[in-house]
């Protein structure tokens, strides 16, 4: 079927065909209220996400505060070579990878399981109470959460050690024991993020057609079978999207929580790329070297995001793009 010439279309319908700019203007006018609400978000990303990308230039320079970004001498990949040749590289890579991997393996399924189980609760008051208490930790700052964990695990007055004393065990200062650091970090992350991440899955569950559950009841399916064959497949697209985002952020272990929880006795298992960047950049004022390490971490995170998106599309046909 051939296309209709604009002049013929005008004679047949009496309407003048609009250009691309006219259509865009029409869409902007139609959705102007939503676009106005989006302006603060756009300003935030321009100022705090895309604007700082300009500073990545110093990763390839011997940056001097007095000479400025463009006045500093170009050194190419010298900082990257020095970082790759340093004995710290593999220690940081291993610690970052293991912390991110354990957080993904243990922290990712918990919100899904919690949301599915919470959806099966029939008492609305109890359900809302549990959900409220579950996402309260997400409103607390990292400093407060870390302080609470330090108090809970204190060998003198901590709740955990008081329980151990009552059971006849000797108190332990868990935060100074390298073998416990990763476990504590993962458990704290799960406790802090499980509640608000479950909200996403609860919203996905709410979008499942209720007639599917009614038909399953008629066929005699148990609640466990309905969870397995209806609820879980129904939220699978959301699970895949969240898995891609989590996998992409696996190497982006934030420095705040690690910095507050670790100490010289746990450096060997707790020191990650972000804390290394903090020390080299802010404490030692080696800005170019720290920028190179941070850029390497970002590149690894990008590779992980692309890889997880590729695997997700091959496995389930869903991806971010």
Automatic annotation (TrEMBL):
InterPro entries per record: MetI-like (IPR000515), MetI-like_sf (IPR035906), UgpAE/MalFG_permease (IPR050809)
Keyword field: Cell membrane, Membrane, Transmembrane, Transmembrane helix, Transport
Subcellular localization, as worded in the UniProt entry: Cell membrane
Membrane topology type: Multi-pass membrane protein
UniProt entry tagged with the keyword Magnesium: no
Residue span(s) of domain ABC transmembrane type-1: 93-308
Pfam family name, one: BPD_transp_1
SUPFAM superfamilies: MetI-like (SSF161098)
Transmembrane spans: 34-60, 97-118, 130-150, 184-208, 229-251, 287-311
Family: Belongs to the binding-protein-dependent transport system permease family.
Name this polypeptide is given: Sugar ABC transporter permease
């Amino acid at each position: 079927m051939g296309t209709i010439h604009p002049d013929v279309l005008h004679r047949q319908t009496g309407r003048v065909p609009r250009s691309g700019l006219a259509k865009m203007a029409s869409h902007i006018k139609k959705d102007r209220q939503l676009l106005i609400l989006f302006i603060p978000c756009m300003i935030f990303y321009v100022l705090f996400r895309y604007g700082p990308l300009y500073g990545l230039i110093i990763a390839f320079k011997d940056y001097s505060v007095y000479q400025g970004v463009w006045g500093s001498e170009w050194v190419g990949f010298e900082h990257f070579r020095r970082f790759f040749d340093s004995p710290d590289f593999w220690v940081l890579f291993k610690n970052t990878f293991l912390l991110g991997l354990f957080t993904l393996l243990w922290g990712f399924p918990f919100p899904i399981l919690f949301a599915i189980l919470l959806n099966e609760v029939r008492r609305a008051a109890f359900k809302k109470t549990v959900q409220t208490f579950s996402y309260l930790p997400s409103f607390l700052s990292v400093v407060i959460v870390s302080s609470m964990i330090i108090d809970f695990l204190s060998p003198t007055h901590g709740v955990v050690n008081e329980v151990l004393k009552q059971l006849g065990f000797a108190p332990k200062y868990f935060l100074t024991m390298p073998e416990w650091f990763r476990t504590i970090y993962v458990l704290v992350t799960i406790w802090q993020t499980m509640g608000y991440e479950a909200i996403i899955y609860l919203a996905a569950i709410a979008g499942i057609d209720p007639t599917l559950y009614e038909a399953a009841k008629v066929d005699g399916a148990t609640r466990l079978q309905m969870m397995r064959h209806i609820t879980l497949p129904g939220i699978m697209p959301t699970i895949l999207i969240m898995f891609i985002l989590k996998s992409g952020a696996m190497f982006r272990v934030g420095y705040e929580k690690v910095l507050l929880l670790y100490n010289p006795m746990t450096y060997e298992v707790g020191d990650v790329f972000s804390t290394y960047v903090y020390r080299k950049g802010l404490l030692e004022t080696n800005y170019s070297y720290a920028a190179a390490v941070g850029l390497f971490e970002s590149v690894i995170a990008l590779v992980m995001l692309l890889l997880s998106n590729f695997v997700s599309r091959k496995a389930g046909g869903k991806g971010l793009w």
